[in-house]
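Sample log: Pseudouridine synthase RsuA/RluA-like domain-containing protein.
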Amino acid sequence: MTAAAAAAAGEIPAEDAPPPGALYSFGTPWPEFNGGISYIDTFRCAGATTTLIEFYSTSYKSSAPLPGWIKRIRDGQITVDGEVATDPDMILREGSKLVYHRLPWQEPFAPHLLDVLYEDDDMIALNKPSGLQVLPKGLFQQRTVLAQLQLKDWKMPSSFCSKRKDAQSHPVPVHRLGRGTSGLLLCAKTKLAKAQLAAYFAEGATNAGKSRDETDICKARKISKFYRALVTGILENDEVMITQPIGLVRYPGVAEGLYAACSSGKPAMSKVRVLERLKIHNHTLIMVEIHSGRPHQIRIHLAYIGHPLVEVMRDLCNLSLEIVDDQNHSSSATYPTDSRGTARYS
């Protein structure tokens, strides 16, 4: 009996049952504060004498102003070669190991429960909720999908009781979804499964950069990703193929730059299909199939063709993943297939 059926029969509380379509749910509530984080550097001398405060205030000036780094040093948050350093004017030696220990902080709200939609000995398909980050970054170092996967006690089958490291339990996501995006997220249970699934995803990015027939590219891919989004304006064509490269561009005030459509970027391919034209609102509901996975690809590509995401629906909905095995068996998403023409942008 499934968990949902058990809830319907009154055997478990309804509030503890997973939503329809889920096998089960898991998740550990987040602690109030995370465990902090350590940033490691190896000092390389550029010729001139460098002090501890000079290194941090110049290398990480976007993290804190000069007074902020002085306070961190005097508070004992930095070690040099394993010893706490409290003198900002300490002279650094070539090859010294520097560690900045960031104090624990309260991370912003994020859901902790994950619904399992599919599971076998090699992988898990999760329904990632909006608001939960996949991997640690920025303010979210603990409240992530990765942390929940590592906290769960995964029961591996007896056939997996192997001394081979690649066959031992190692649950990790194999691709990313934006923190605000909800939908299917594939996770590998072992290093071996991760390597194979990651290779499937990499094929999509490789094919996106080749000048090949669209049919050939679709046949070559083993994993397909579909998203649903609401965009501004009315798309005239039922299908739109966008192949504009995406890359980092310099932007005032942003040290790392911003991702945008640019000719010097990496190959990217998005196939857009119209689901519904909402003329009264001047919006179009679309399905987007991405053949690559560049940062912010859907937002950038849709803005590039003059149909940016609607402001009130910035969070995308990832509907499904299609996986095709070596025997060409597959399970696919349902979306309109009729077309009056395909527009291409590159």
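Observation: The chain has three domains: 37-102, 112-205, 214-345.
Observation: The chain is about 20% helix and 30% strand.
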